[in-house]
Amino acid sequence: MIAGGEERRIAILAGGGKLPPLVTAGALREGRAPVVFAIAGEAEPEAFAPAPVHVVRWGEIGRLFRLTEENGCREAVLVGSISRRPDYRTLRPDFGAVKLIPRILKLMSGRDGTLLEGVAQIFEEKGLSVLSPLVVAPGLALGAGVQVGTVSEDSARDIEAARAAALEIGGLDIAQAAVAVGGRVAAVEDADGTDALLERVSLMRRAGAIPKSGGVLVKCLKPMQDGRHDLPTIGPRTAERAADAGLAGVAAEAGRAILVGREETIGAFREAGLFLVGLAPAP
Q1: pLDDT score, position 283
Q2: In the chain, at which residue ranges do the beta strands (DSSP E only) sit?
Q3: Is the pLDDT of residue 160 over 90?
Q4: Which of 43, 99, 107, 253 is most solvent-facing, going by the fewest CB within 10 Å?
Q5: What stretch of H or E contains 181?
Q6: How far apart are CA 189 and CA 182, in angstroms?
Q7: pTM higher than 0.90 for the full model?
Q8: CB distance 226 to 117 below 8 Å
Q9: 16-25, 92-101, 177-186, 210-219 — which is least confidently predicted?
């Protein structure tokens, strides 16, 4: 509760993955009253207890905003993955979505980042302030400096090379991550994501194209990106994949990257023998 007993109610529009329940739990710890709107086919409603949950389907925009108003939500967070884009031919828009159909169809045909930006704009047009997940659940933010492990001089050079490459491709609105080995950029992320990037690094090692060990994965917010959604994420899976790729560690911008469970993530990096470091954000 906040002063006067008024609950700080916030709508959580939840996609798939482990992050939406973690953000919801973090909001509860911060004294907020989250109301979850779980996207049908993406989020698991039972994962959000004890927060109230409403399952919403694609096209139920009128119902979504009616429920946010009924629940007294004036702020919102958009978090989670969208793994299955709906077929526009099966879309059954309710009355509140009819005027938005052209925009909805355009958003559905774009990238995830474009989809999230468009949804955020619609939320704001409906009078809700869209916040970063890290405003609502600050305990999930990657901290500054070395979180676990040790960064060698070689790894420090790799961090600088990979970070420059990540910012370059981010400036082109391509992706958020890059890997450097031996002070040189080995591979950059594309639309297939970080897992695919690390798999390419593994293949390069097996082919002898890069040294057998060492190197760093760096993830950065795109220079012109809206920092309220699609933030770089690091979790136990990141540690496992980076270890499989033979890397020495992972770095990301402090305060701009989300840990998918702080204790679980730090523990996974420690178990894998990798470092995790939070970098000063790029200006």
Answers
A1: 73
A2: 8-14, 32-39, 53-56, 75-79, 129-130, 145-148, 177-181, 184-188, 216-219, 233-234, 249-253, 258-259, 275-279
A3: yes
A4: 99
A5: strand 177-181
A6: 18
A7: no
A8: yes
A9: 92-101
